[in-house]
Design goal:
By secondary structure, the protein is mainly alpha-helical. It is about 75% helix and about 0% strand. The C terminus is likely disordered.
């Protein structure tokens, strides 16, 4: 069915609100990396345990529950699923301030991953139903600025917040305490999220579009079967996005990297990294939006080409910045890497939304997120932590990070290039099934 008639202003209000929710989720996710050294000292952790907190502790339930929740979102109200997820993950973040052992903090990070598992599948599905195919790529690309803006807030605001809390020492909160710096950080970033859950009540659940099943009927196709039948095209998309997401996990280690190699303090690292997220992230998103609009005039696979462009920039720069001889060269290369990664981040979900029917869109996004999370935050941080511990030299973290990027980057970009023709075939099949050939050839409008 066609999109319901909503004003352009209301459509973009929905995108901005969902973007703010996405930003919040990444803020809560990344705040841990800013206080990892105080937590490591307070709870007597090693780098492998730190890697578990940064990766699997969040990602395990995010992976295990993402697909079932995506399946449910294709059948129930995505709005209420999002509200429930926000409330749950904010409760987990706030409760992390009370953790007094590694095991408790590990469990709370598992809960954070569970709550955030609903965000991207439900949001991208809703945006796809609010916008037609010509305008969808732009809307999703803007929404996908969320990871960079959220992480940017975590580093920029969170870094200075940690610095301020450090200057205050042990603090009481709501008449309870005293609490350490890292505990107060969890309180202050977790509680405001409940406001966003209330704001979600202001949006309406959109009618589902581009359905294969009849209106009102349950989806008659399996997301797994649909993707597997077109595995070459979807595989190129998944591998490219997985590589990009895995490179993004390097940011988890920015604090120890710059502390150990170049002697920077947490507020300085947080400020620089946060400013990069706020500048390089929007620059990359703007490039992605512009490139998508430009390429759509001649290429229906514009979103995949944008993903490939982002990888071509992000992979070499991500491999270089951890091993630069000076901090100034490192931050220069890191800025360019951030631009490339944000371009690829915008391209992946846009490319996915154009080759999946509306019946299975939430579940397809959940499968997509599950795949990219398995290699990214689930495996990346503990592997990096283990390799650093194994080297016996904490300062070897730069070389470990660089080798990690090289090992996953080169094979991934080759696979994407070889799979482009198969993605185009899946795109043609999707358009023919909707009887909308040439739908993407018209110029995009606001």
């Amino acid at each position: 069915m066609e999109q319901q008639k909503h004003s352009i202003g209301y459509q973009w209000y929905v995108v901005i609100l969902l973007l703010l929710v996405y930003i919040l989720s990444y803020f809560d996710r990344y705040i841990l990396t800013l206080v990892i050294e105080p937590i490591k000292h307070s709870l007597q952790l090693n780098d492998f345990q730190v890697g578990l907190l940064l990766g699997p502790a969040f990602s395990l339930f995010n992976v295990l529950m993402g697909i079932p929740l995506g399946w449910y979102a294709d059948r129930a109200s995505r709005k209420w699923i999002l509200i429930g997820g926000i409330v749950f993950w904010c409760a987990m973040t706030t409760a992390s301030g009370f953790a007094m052992s590694f095991a408790v903090l590990l469990l709370l990070r598992l809960g954070l991953g569970l709550g955030e598992a609903v965000v991207s599948p439900a949001s991208i599905s809703m945006i796809s139903d609010y916008f037609d195919r010509r305008r969808r790529g732009r809307a999703i690309s803007i929404y996908m600025a969320g990871p960079y803006l959220g992480a940017g807030l975590a580093f920029l605001v969170g870094g200075n917040l940690v610095g301020w809390l450090t200057s205050m020492g042990h603090t009481h909160f709501l008449g309870v305490g005293p609490f350490e710096v890292w505990q107060m950080a969890f309180f202050l970033v977790g509680i405001p999220g409940f406001i966003f859950a209330a704001l979600m009540l202001t949006i309406r659940e959109p009618a589902r579009t581009e359905r294969v099943a009849k209106e009102g009927a349950a989806p008659q196709i399996s997301a797994f079967r649909y993707i597997l039948q077109r595995w070459r095209g979807f595989g190129a998309l998944f591998v490219g996005a997985t590589c990009n997401f895995a490179m993004s996990t390097l940011t988890f280690w920015n604090i120890p990297l710059f502390q150990r190699v170049w002697g920077w303090d947490i507020p300085t690292i947080g400020t620089v990294t946060g400013l990069f997220y706020f500048t390089a992230g929007p620059i990359g998103t703007a490039i992605a939006v512009w490139m998508t609009r430009h390429l759509l005039r001649t290429h229906a696979d514009a979103a995949m080409r944008v993903l490939l462009l982002g990888l071509a920039i992000g992979i070499p720069m991500s491999a270089l910045y951890p091993v630069m001889p000076t901090a100034s060269l490192a931050v220069t290369a890191m800025f360019i890497a951030f631009v490339g990664k944000s371009i690829a981040t915008a391209g992946g979900p846009s490319a996915l939304a154009l080759v999946t029917p509306g019946d299975i869109r939430s579940q397809s996004v959940a499968i997509f997120n599950t795949v990219i999370t398995l290699v990214g935050p689930l495996l990346g941080p503990p592997i990096i932590g283990w390799a650093t511990d194994y080297s016996g030299d904490p300062r070897s973290i730069g070389m470990v990070l660089s080798l990690f990027v090289i090992c996953i980057g080169i094979p991934s970009i080759l696979f994407v290039v070889l799979g482009m023709k198969h993605y185009r075939q899946a795109l043609v099949e999707m358009e023919e099934s909707l009887a909308v050939p040439d739908a993407l050839s018209a110029p995009a409008t606001a």
